[in-house]
Amino acid sequence: MLYSLLRFSTPNYFRSLSYLFKNNPVFRMNSGDIIPSGTCLPFQKKIFISSQGDIKPCEKIPIRFSLGFADDNGMHIDSNHIAAFYNSIYKRIWNNCQDCKMRSNCNVCTFYLDGVLDANKRLNCQYYKDESDYSKIISQLIEMIEKNYSLYLNCINTIIE
């Protein structure tokens, strides 16, 4: 229940306890280690092929973001086009993500941000969190854990098993 509440209240959530510490300087990753946003890299986690043969990174992404197509002659994928497209998206959102305190916990898919197809538009994320926002989230999580400690322990034991 606690996990569900966190997961569905925001696209920025902690996948495990260790994620609470990623913004701590002791645990900080180099900025180059973090891919901006929660957008999945093509073919990294899964692939979706529609009944019409359109290839997409996942079933949730609109058809206009097709990575290629499949037909009787095989798979048709232009990796250079895919890399250029993803790089153009990342380049336009990088400054926003770089300063966001939830960047290592982000679950926001850039394909749903306004203006993703407009190469001249800087992308802004409505879920951006500054230091103050981040502190509030951590405080709320700690308060929730304190009020529901037995539920918290149950979640931890379930996750660990």
Mean pLDDT: 77
Beta content: 5-15%
Strand-pairing-aware structural class: alpha+beta
Count of DSSP-assigned helices: 4
Tally the beta strands. 4
Q: What does the main sheet amount to? A: 4 strands, antiparallel
- The helix content, as a percent range, equals 25-40%
Q: Judging from the principal axes of the Cα atoms, what is the shape?
A: flat
- How many distinct folded domains? 1
Which parts are unreliable, with pLDDT below 50 for 5 consecutive residues or more?
Answer: 17-31
Strands of the widest sheet, in order across it, are: 1-2-3-4
Q: State the end-to-end distance.
A: 17 Å
How would you spell out the order of helices and strands?
Answer: HEEEEHHH
User: Any idea what the radius of gyration is?
Assistant: 18 Å
Can you walk through the features of this model?
- This protein is of the alpha+beta class.
- The protein has one domain.
- 36% of the residues lie in helices and 8% in strands.
- The protein has 4 helices and 4 strands.
- A 4-stranded antiparallel β-sheet has the order 1-2-3-4, with no helix packed on it.
- Residues 17-31 have low confidence and may be disordered.
Layout of SSEs?
Elements: H1 2-9, E1 48-49, E2 54-56, E3 68-71, E4 74-77, H2 79-99, H3 131-147, H4 149-160
Antiparallel strand pairs: 1-2, 2-3, 3-4
